[in-house]
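Provenance and format

Records in this collection were gathered into a single text stream. Each protein contributes a sequence line and a token line. The two records reproduced below are adjacent in the stream.
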Amino acid sequence: MSTVGAEARADRAERPSLWVRLGAVQRRFQLFQIIALVALFEWGTWTVTDFATKQSVYSMLVTASFLGLAGAGQTIVVLVGGIDFSIPAFISLGAILMSELTGSHGWAFVPALLVIMAFALVLGAVNGYVSHRFRVPPLVVTLGMASVITGGLLVWTHGQQTGSPPTFLGRLSSVNGTTLGIGIPPVVVIWAVVAIVLGVVLRRTLAGRHVYATGSNPVAAELALVRTRRVWVGAFAASALLAALLGVLIAGYAGAGGTTLGDPYLFEGLAAVIVGGTAFGARGDYWRTVLGALVLTVLSTVLVGKGYSSADQQIIFGILILVVVAGYGRELRLRDRI
């Protein structure tokens, strides 16, 4: 009898606890974020006038698209163990170059877009190379790059909003826009395509595996013949490119370029990455950032509907980030699980 009891106790000891099982589900499916998104939407539906109307939902999706695209490059950089503070500058770069080249200098859209992409790729690659080659913290390097870009744009434009982007860019981000005759704003479709492509690249390709290997343990990655410097250069170049392309879309939405257009997307884009569940040390993916962008957008819309100020929202966002980061401390890093 005692032997049977001892075996039962041993079986219970080996069986994972409820909290351990919930933690495993959270890591795989981001259960907390999904529940929070549903709860926030229901809260807004019942307490904010016209919150769940078609126009309001589409407006939230457009806002979330901008925020999610701002977090796309940041997600890649965070996964390799860095951080990119030059994203707002690259957003302004894309917006101003598109507005100036097509509006003031008469360029066609495609040549202007190619110039923007070239600038972004080169300057983003410099971020990654300098940070990795000279072991300079990426925060310092990207802040310096942001200052160089912003200063150059101010000199060129004399600190004024000039030029105008092509009119079709405005239709891409219009709440009333259509995609192939379907009543869905084109920018939302663009975001969905980016999410699918980037999610597959990170999880299903060799390049994605190199990103996770580098962020998890760069020394082990080097021993496994992963060229970590190339991965860093590619990650920061991709971040700059995605930010500049977002700037092109925002120029169409705002109707002009400006050196401050990208400023809101530094904190909020990073917040979307963190709240979604992606953290330093190769934990997470872009689909989590998508979820984080949706959570923050719905939360912000509810708070605005209830009369909260921008300062109040910043406080609430900060508390939310602290809560999520505290949860990271209880989660094993990838290199500690293998």
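Adjacent record:
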Amino acid sequence: MSVAAAQKKKLNRPLPWRTAGLYLLTLWAVVTLNFLIPRLMPGDPVLALLDPASGNYLTDQQIRQEVEAYYGLDQPLPVQYTNYLGRLLRGNLGTSIHLKEPVAKLIAIHLPWTLLLMIPALVISSLVALFLGAHAGWVRGSPLDRSLLVLFLGLWNMPVFFLGLLLLLFFGVQWQIFPIAGAVTRFQQYGSWLDWLLDVLYHLVLPLTALTLSMIGGRFLLMRNTMVSVLGQEFMVVARAKGLSPQIIKYRHGMRNAVLPFFTVFATQMGLAVTGSIFIESLFAYPGMGLMMFEAVGRRDYPLLDGTFLVISLAVLLANLAADIFYVFLDPRVSAQ
């Protein structure tokens, strides 16, 4: 390679500081939207104080004004935004207006339950879609391929809330096989940590199944279509000409190249998993971040909404960053561009 060509390749290579700057800009946009969206909704956190139907009903307007001043809600929006950024820089997520607890503490309590629901759902749905999609693309046009297409197209177009409702009605209410709400049996005394773990897994079955089924359809279709497009590539023709076995051609050559866009979409679909978990946790009264966020929206609890939105947005952003980093290892051609 000539010196000029090497210099040209070096100039065309993405600069790390540009990527870092782009993520920092995205982070600032996320933080700003997390602040603005709750405050653009109708109502405010202390509106319940003047609602006679609320258990927190107060008739004294002066007390309402004092509460607004305590939480800084009486200040102009730019001042609130500046104070919000200052708190974040100090690592302070604020205090929940309704629950009277630090937001960081509430997130630390509810986040593990959401991770227990989301991570297995992401892993199971991805693995099933990966192998079934690759095989369906390999045997494209066969009865098995058509059957899987019908099944996963149906799951893909079925709302996650409807999926969860079907599982709840049949397996929870009609047949009473699994519990219909919560993460553990209330007021249950456990003999050991193993009994507690089994109870947690028992309560996890229905919400995990609903969330997994809601995510598997799109991933299957992506993997299947990508596998079909890979089969016509030149390297697949060369692999067949070498006399390699069908299993080696399918997995080592076909699936290995088809998984690249699948991996990229896996990171970008983290947001869909978060959205699905909100519906699922609300339906099954599962004590995760989704249920806490759903209740905070109804109460217009700004600090709690800011904190939960921020944590979820950061998780999606970090997932995309990890995808950018690992994509280089999956496809060496990226680093050579």
